[in-house]
Amino acid sequence: MLICKALGRPSGLGQLSSCRLPNVLSRWASTTVQTSSTVVAPEAAKHPLTPDDHRRLAFQRNIGVSAHIDSGKTTLTERILYYTGRIREIHEVRGRDNVGAKMDSMELEREKGITIQSAATFCDWETVDAISGEKNKYAINIIDTPGHVDFTIEVERALRVLDGAILVLCAVSGVQSQTTTVDRQMRRYNVPRISFINKMDRPGANPWRVIEQIRSKLRMSAAAVQIPIGAEDEFRGVVDLVHWRSIYNEGHKGIDVVIKNEIPAEVEAFAKEKRAELLYQLAEVDEEIGEIVLMDEVPTNEQLAAAIRRATIGLKFSPVFLGSAVKNTAVQPLLDGVTSYLPTPAESLVLAHDTEQPVDAPQLALTPAANAPLVGLAFKLEEGRYGQLTYMRVYQGTLKKANLIYNARTGKKVKVPRLVRMHSNDMEDVESIGPGEICAIFGVECSSGDTFTDGTTSYSMTSMFVPDPVISLALKLDGKETPNFSKALNRFKKEDPTFRVHLDSESKETIISGMGELHLEIYVERMRREYNVACTTGKPKVAFKETITKRTPFAYTHKKQTGGSGQFARIAGYIEPIEDGGEFLDHVVGGVIPEQYIPGVEKGFFIAMEKGTLSGNPINGVRMVLEDGSYHAVDSSELAFRTAAIGAFREIYHSAKPIVLEPIMKVEVVAPAEFQSAVIGSLNTRRGTIADSEVHDGELTVVADVPLNDMFGYSNQLRGCTQGKGEFSMEYKVHAPTIAPVQKQLEEEYKKTLNQKK
Ligand SMILES: Nc1nc2c(ncn2[C@@H]2O[C@H](COP(=O)(O)OP(=O)(O)OP(=O)(O)O)[C@@H](O)[C@H]2O)c(=O)[nH]1
């Protein structure tokens, strides 16, 4: 039995009994599971999965490759493409051949040797079943995601639409700060993962320490399903602990996989020890294996493989694979691991909301039947050589070329002019795409996160988690005003929800904000290269926010008499702090303010929220409740009520005890242990709160919460105090109240800019 990635009570969706299926399928006969707060989409009963659906889905995998920066994701994916026959030659990241990795298709990515955009690619992988000897061909969609925290939305996007993932770790560095972030994201979307400890060829490679870290730092039960044969330079293959055999790579770039049934004598005892450890770990999370171990029996290889699969898909366990991507060793067994242990699209619980039902109605579990009504999610937009490209995951039904599809958000219908399978920046035209698959369509106007249907249902998929921007930059055009400027900014905004643009009403400057300096720097550079727009940027500024701390009533009259018709609006109510965002509630009774003017009050409230009068930063976490007011038969208008709301808000804002919030970053520093006091000292001088400090094998890891405002220039300071041996990474944690002196300084600076304008 298979367990769905969203755990809960089993439902009767697995309709396998009526069809004959290949061995591999019947062994994994699936039971899809729903939670108590979901119901199955009504079409599931009308369109049960057919034997064809089962066959197709069983051999389909949608996986992501995620990790801390520089762990070797792109290098690994390049090997996967080579071994699956998608590319004829391997090109290295920052390779001497200057071609760059296939998946890093953007010029900037190749130059910098980092992945910026996640790329989707499709490949086939043929396996020989270790138990039955049966050959099976799997279709795998892979998304290579960036490791840099500034591009975190790309990781979010990918995980949203994937069924499983490979978490890549470095055999020397182990669990790093970004690994923890990726782990959190995988948990948020219930994505089961297998772990791949890469760089086994590096001096100091220690997979056992890394596995310990997965258990202790990520709090995930994990055990190796392989042990290495040879270490570091001598690393030449792995022992497969599940099927008890050894696996080596031979031929050009390790293309030939040589499987031997005997285990090298020098590692046999160790292999037995590690197989016992695997069993022990599984017994903790899997009942069937638990019972076998309790009875002092030995499970069959088949039972062991099935238990690993169950526990992995049940999010209780991560099987650990070992290898070296750069040395072309043990990548193919990892691919076998993807097909063996990661879920099929039928095993993922995918939820949608019926927009015709109340917001709090139970979510619907979609069914991956090819003949059910279409539901697909546009998860990524890209401006390609041939126009706008929209990446879509089809969850239910079939997407066909030339068919009409409906955007659930806008209600607009569009024709699908061209449908392709993506292979990084190359593509293959196809006529139709079934449920569980990922494709791209051309020429469809939409925003990232939009749901598409065939118009017969009113389903909408839930949206992604979008973090707040932490840094902003003022942009000034170098040359003359050009339409390309706004064109570029609009496109970037549509592509990337973490990239924001606004015009500062006082300075008249265009301000861009995002997740970090590199994030914004990339967009400025793309603007120059792709749109021929050169800009000068101001100094990066921390994205502060303001909020209020006290419930405060308002009563405000806006009255103006200028020649002809005047303006009149009176409103009363209160504002109060809330956790996040802005909220407007209309509690007016008896029509004291006619209905048509209420939207004006709401608009005015949100305009006022754009800029606080304390420090000039956006306001967050306020609810406005409108309770009373009055109007004038001739002089009232929506505009008058909008102006009244702005006036009311600004008048009482200071009485509501506003404060400034600043982004706090989770900073992780890694350095040789001898620099412990210097590193902790450096974080203390930057108002850091140390959350964790650990020394392991002579290496110090310190985790601290530090205001972003105090992080400028930290890399130089760290270099200086660790003789260049310290490294750090940071990610956004939360916006929190800043200290009084910083708030005072911001207030004064803002007053100065206002005075200069007078
Ligand atoms: N020794 C060793 N080096 C490796 C291995 N795999 C990758 N590398 C090197 O590690 C560096 C980073 O590799 P990438 O594949 O760019 O890593 P990435 O995780 O995709 O990096 P980002 O996309 O920037 O997050 C490159 O210099 C690779 O050559 C490996 O198995 N062994």
UniProtKB/TrEMBL annotation:
Residues 58-346 form the Tr-type G domain. Its main location: mitochondrion. The keyword Ribosomal protein does not apply. It is found in: Mitochondrion. It comes from the Eukaryota. The keyword Nucleotide-binding applies. Signal peptide: none annotated. GTP binds at residues 67-74, 144-148, 198-201. One of its GO terms (cellular component) is mitochondrion. One of its GO terms (molecular function) is GTPase activity. Pfam families: EFG_C, EFG_III, EFG_IV, GTP_EFTU, GTP_EFTU_D2. GO terms for biological process: mitochondrial translational elongation. InterPro entries: EFG_II, EFG_III, EFG_III/V, EFG_IV, EFG_V-like, EFTu-like_2, G_TR_CS, P-loop_NTPase. Keywords: Elongation factor, GTP-binding, Mitochondrion, Nucleotide-binding, Protein biosynthesis. Belongs to the TRAFAC class translation factor GTPase superfamily. Classic translation factor GTPase family. EF-G/EF-2 subfamily. Belongs to the GTP-binding elongation factor family. EF-G/EF-2 subfamily. This is Elongation factor G, mitochondrial. The gene is MEF1.
